Predict the structure of Gamma-aminobutyric acid receptor subunit pi.
Amino acid sequence: MFCRYFSFLSLCLFLPSQRRCSLGHISSLHRSDTTSLPGFENLTMGYNKYLRPYFGGEPVQIAMSLDVASISSISESDMDYTATISLRQRWTDPRLVFHGNKSFTLDARLVELLWVPDTYIVESKRSFLHDVTVGNRLIRLFSNGTILYALRITTTVACNMDLSKYPMDTQTCRLQLESWGYDENDITFTWLRGNDSVHGIEKLRLSQYTVERYYTLVSKSQQETGSYPRLILQFELRRNVLYFILETYVPSTLLVMLSWVSFWITLDSVPARTCIGVTTVLSMTTLMIGSRSSLSKTNCFIKAIDVYLGICFSFIFGALVEYAVAHYSSSQKCAAKVPQERPANELTKEMEEVNITNILNNSITSYKQKISFTSIEISSDNVNCSDLSMKSHEKIKCVLRNKMHRIIGYFTIQNPGNVDHYSKLLFPLFFMLVNVVYWAYYLYF
């Protein structure tokens, strides 16, 4: 009863002087306007803020609208965003109907004397109501009993992000409003004007993102205690990739191109080529560590930028390995040429030391081998293993020997200088092909 009188007293203070009412008039108004529900006569004897409108009857319809003032931060490491919003709720309470066609804005402190919905923000981590200079709340009462209740809130809401395409990703975040205690039998939530119920989000200017689109949904949350009404504002954020192109992609590509400079330096310049290879590898490693430090808590994701840095590191490391292979092959070839380049007098002395008897013995031995193995052709590289007189295990050994000769021949570099010649062409072409596949996949798939 006190709340009922206090509400009408507050209302009468705002009415014109000719419409102000007395306690007696309030009492008569209370007696004439109060409608009792069967079985709840003692509960509906006046206004009670602990009971919702239409208590025991039809559910209260809550119409909502939002003004998004800002989205101050979007954290990939914590997977959340912080937004400042103005939440407006409208509902009709027949217990607050008064005569006239005017509306009155009441002191926000009177909200403690009224019934208000128990709306909360789903998946909110931290929230607070602005209170400078006073609590940022608004109460407006209309003659038909409609109440407008507005709040200014800053909230940090969880947003599950898929960072597999970072930094060419598009994230979908939600702001969900739900009733905490009243189920759908007591309260129904609706957007006031559909998508037009949300304002301000299309004007936001974010540091790393661009708002692609947004839309509103009406849903229900099925829980163990019942089915609760829920309103959803869903918006898509596309990351601006230009910053990452200038900071990461361009430097890593230039490092790969720098590693190709060693192909134009001769194999004899060991310090120069080694210095270029090691320097580019270390620079690429530093760039990879720096790119991952900003997302230290999301290392479980294999991101698109990690794939590109891995590709660049592989090409740089491959250029260093290419020089090691070419230099090793060149040194082996030079070592093989040393015995052939000995002075003529040394060869003459060795020829003089050869005994004629040894020459004859060797000739007879080789002649006997040709007679006994007429179907076997022995060469430095391959052996004909088609002789039917050979045993099975000898044929297997012969085939394996030929295979080994072929495999070794494939990996034997006859001219080490051609390694650099082919690398000048193959490394850039293959790198361009990988880039085409990379950008096509992450931008269009």
